[in-house]
Amino acid sequence: MGNGRYNGEVVVVTGAGRGIGRGEALEFARQGARVVVNDYGVSVDGAEPSSDAANAVVAEITALGGEAIANADDVSDWQGAHRLIHSAIDTWGRLDVLVNNAGILTFAPIAEMTLTSFRRVLDVNAVGCWLGMKAVIEPMKRAGGGSIVNISSIEGFTGADGLSAYTASKFAIRGMTKVAARELAGFGIRVNSVHPGGVLTRMVVDSEGARSAEEAQAFLKAMPLGRFAEPAEISRLVAYLASDDSSYSTGSEFVADGGLLSGPGY
Q1: Are 13 and 35 in contact (CB under 8 A)?
Q2: N or C: which end of the chain has fewer CB within 10 A?
Q3: What global pTM score does this model have?
Q4: Which of 37, 36, 136, 124 is nearest to 88 (CA)?
C-alpha cells in the first residue's frame, strides 16, 4: 500500500464499521494512511456496544497490507471522543485527519417522533461532530495543522418528510463546519463538509421507519444520474479533501448526490 496521497499519515474515521465510513477507512488505507476505525457498535435494535464491526474493517485493512486499529468509543460523549482521538496519538504519535462520519437515522413525522429519539439523533450526528472537532484542536495545533472532513448530507441543504431530526443535525454540521474553518485556519487546520445523497447503505435500509421500495424508486427517478452511489464514490472525495491536494479549500461544501439538488427535473 502507500501508492496514493498519503505516506503514513494518521486518520481517524468515526462510524467506520459499515457503509460510507467503512468505505472511507478502506480508501484511506489503500492510499497509504494509517487508520483508527471507530464504531460504537449500537445496532438499530439497540444492541450493546461492540467493537466487532470495527475489528472486521481492521482485518480487511490488514489483509490489504495496511495499518489500522479498532475503537469502540461513543463519539457523542466527551470522554469517548477524547479517548478516540488519543488512541491515534498513543498508537502512532500523531494525528493528521479527522473524518466525522458517525451518524444515525430515524424516519418519523414530527407528530409521531419522541423527544428521546430526536435528541439521540442530534447527540450522535451533531454533538458527536462538534466533540470530535473540539478534541482534535490541541493535537492538531501542536502538530502544526491538520484536516477535518465533516460528513453532512443533502439534508444539510433541504428538508425531507420524516427526517426532522436528521435534517436538523445535518444543517448543524454544515454550519459548524464554516465556523470551525474560520476559527482554525490560523492554526493550519482546514475544515470542509461533504454532502452525499442517494447512497444506499445499511443505515438507510435498516433504520426505523425506512422507506419502501416504491419510495426508493421515486427517489431514483428524481436523480439525473438515475442510480444510487457506491460508498467508494463518496470515500474518494473525502480522501481528496483530507489531503494536501485540496490545500486551498476550507469552510466549503462538497455535494455528491447524482445531481439530485440540481433542480426539480421538469
Answers
A1: yes
A2: C
A3: 0.90
A4: 36
Q: Can you tell me the distance from the alpha carbon of 135 to that of 86, in angstroms, rounded to the nearest whole number? A: 9
What are the tens digits of pLDDT across the range 45-79?
444 455 799 999 999 999 999 999 999 999 999 99
Residue 70 in contact with residue 58, Cβ under 8 Å?
yes
Q: Looking at 6, 40, 166, 240, which residue is catalytic?
A: 166
C-beta of residue 249 within 8 angstroms of C-beta of residue 208: no
Instruction: Identify whether 266 is a catalytic site residue.
Output: no
Question: Cα(189)–Cα(191) distance, rounded to whole angstroms?
Answer: 7
The residues, any chain, with a CB within 8 Å of residue 50's CB and separated by 6 or more, are 41, 72
Q: Which of 180, 169, 161 shows the shortest CA–CA distance to 103?
A: 169
Map out the domains of the chain with their CATH numbers: 10-255 (3.40.50.720)
Note the pLDDT tens digit of each residue in 154-197: 999 999 999 999 999 999 999 999 999 999 999 999 999 999 99
